[in-house]
Amino acid sequence: MFATTRAHTKHGLTSSSKRFNSKYTPPISSFSYIHDDALSDIKKEEIAKHMQDLGPFPNYSNILNPQHFYQNTVLLDYSKKHPHPVSLRQLAGYGNTLTKQKIINSANFVRVELPIRLAMRIRDLQVLPFGVVNNFHMAQIYESYYHSFNAFRKIGKINTVEENEKFCAILSTLLDDHTFNLPHLMMGALEVSIAESLSQEKLDSFMSSMLRSRLSRRLIVEEHLSLSENYRKQPYARKPPHYLGEIFQTCKAVDHFNEVAEKVKNLLCHQYPRAKELPKLQIDGDLDCEFQFMVPHLHYMLHEILRNSFEATLKTTKEETLLPLVKITIVDSKHDVIFRISDQGGGLQHDQLKSIWSFGKSPELARKSLATFHRIPGLQLHSNLQFSASGSSVVRPKETTSSNDDDEVGWASRNKKSTLEDLMARPHEYKLGMGLPMCSVYADYWNGSLQMNSLEGYGCDTSLTLKKLGYHSNIIQLDRA
Length: 481
Description:
Layout: H1 7-10, H2 41-48, H3 68-79, H4 88-96, H5 100-126, H6 130-133, H7 136-153, H8 161-177, H9 181-195, H10 200-233, E1 249-252, H11 253-268, E2 282-285, E3 290-293, H12 295-316, E4 327-332, E5 336-342, H13 350-353, H14 363-373, E6 386-387, E7 393-394, H15 419-425, H16 435-445, E8 449-455, E9 459-467
Parallel strand pairs: 2-4
Antiparallel strand pairs: 1-3, 4-5, 5-9, 6-7, 8-9
Helix pairs in contact: 3-5, 5-7, 5-8, 5-10, 7-9, 8-10, 9-10, 9-14, 10-16, 11-12, 12-16
């Protein structure tokens, strides 16, 4: 599955390093996103030293080895199982009043559920075309998922609250250790686009499936960490009827729009001096609108939409002209919250509207986005996965020093790292071309939608619809394994 292509031999790349000298410069592939000057003769000599390591399995991998084929029988057994459907209403009812047995049951649900959901996604990766699954970034995802699968399937039944504390420490560590998965997934999609090894339709379907599954798994884990933390601090405390969990917060739409807008303006100021002139958003409609939602998800969607609107406004407005407003209309209906974001940034050509929602890019655009990924400061792309001497997956929880009920425990869900925050905080000039496709998946996951209409030469109207979770909590959100 992870064998090296014959193309390497065909082009002579497996020959000795003497070919890489100043007299012989192999051509840069048309699929490469590396600039010519980045591949100096010295670097070519360094690369040549590793040519003998090419083989059917990545030499850096502790999981993808000759024994992996035989381990797949275990994976296949798990992939044939069905994930247990869970709705937000079930979560709300479950966490309304917490008991010792409820916490233990929740822990065992997570323990049993995650290996099944991971096995399904690993199987999806296994059946991808060779040129896709052999991609370096996709291989990182594969190894990460298999690491978690191996770790979880070996955890025994949890019978006490003390055992749950240790289990929560493992969950917390895995959440932190796997934050690099999202950048690898996005970069893998870009490299697949460059190589054109998967159709745009199939790539979008694969990416949507992977992202929805990632959301579901992290939601299950974060909810259990939240329940466990609440039980530790206030056992048997009763929550209000509308309670959905600590990871869902009551959001006042106006406040969050203004907060995100200020962050976007601060990022734009480094590239567009006139960004300081942008007035506060003109917001009308239901200004008192409040709803429950996950703040990181909400901020990411608003951030990408406003980022596009503000930049379009700055780029298309003449310097001597007053910058036009970006107008927000809030509609607070019984079941939905609808945000309409209108700008005068010149709009898009109609043939561009369809492509902006796709993870599949043209090879030229994908190369630019991929090069940008490598320049983003602070974005984690390396693996933290640990293994025993025999190659078994190991999870070493971070030790917690807090014993006071008023202190934060080390695995508190609200302290988890967020790749979305890193992506939002990147300098504005680092454009990835993945923002709107990602936002569309997030909106769809919560049974909402993201749409855009464009009046070419004038501006765009973007409509973000979010379902009120309290009214739609019977929908099986977490069944998107």
